[in-house]
Amino acid sequence: MGYRGFKLIDSGSTHNFMDVRLAQRMGCKMEPVKLQSVSVADGSELRCDYICKKFNWRLQGNDFYTDVLLILLGSCDMVLGVQWLSTLGTIQWNFQTLQIEFQLGNKRYVLRGLQGPKVKIIKQS
Fold first, then answer.
1. What's the burial of 46, exposed, middle or buried (CB within 10 Å: 0-12/13-18/19+)?
2. Residue 63 forms beta bridges with which residues?
3. What's the whole-model pTM score?
4. What span, in angstroms and rounded, lies between the C-alpha atoms of 114 and 116?
């Protein structure tokens, strides 16, 4: 049965990522990769030494298999980037409602994002 934890879908990420500590706890087969660094949103770079190939995870009751690079992630267990999104074909995005829709085979998927707190401007220059 595939992993069901918290996933972040990020169209700004070129690859898929999973938290290396989670991979270790789950006993995933971690294969070494040529040392590389991953640039993250705040401009810092994270070291990436391993990949987990064909990681099995679940979405709306269906299993998916995705290669994930293993790095230290802070706020989520897994980031699904363009590497996965590009396998979905046509995707319909609605950023106002934080909703993504796509179809694979005969199954239609509708994903809804979490609503976070509204941003407040404290001081404007």
1. middle
2. 58
3. 0.83
4. 6
> With 0-12 CB in 10 A as exposed, 13-18 as middle and 19+ as buried, what is 35?
exposed
Q: List beta partners, residue 62.
A: 59
Q: How many CB atoms lie within 10 A of CB 108?
A: 10
Residue-wise pLDDT for 36-65, tens only, equals: 778 777 777 888 899 999 999 988 888 999
Cα–Cα dist 20/17, whole Å = 9
Answer yes or no: are the C-beta atoms of 104 and 65 closer than 8 Å: no
What's phi and psi for 117, nearest 5 deg?
-65, 150
Q: For residues 73 and 89, what is the distance between their CA atoms, to the nearest angstrom?
A: 27
Domains of the chain with bracketed CATH: 7-80 (2.40.70.10)
Beta bridge partners of 69: 17, 51
d(CA 90, CA 14): 18
CA torsion 103-68-40-94 (nearest 10°) is 10
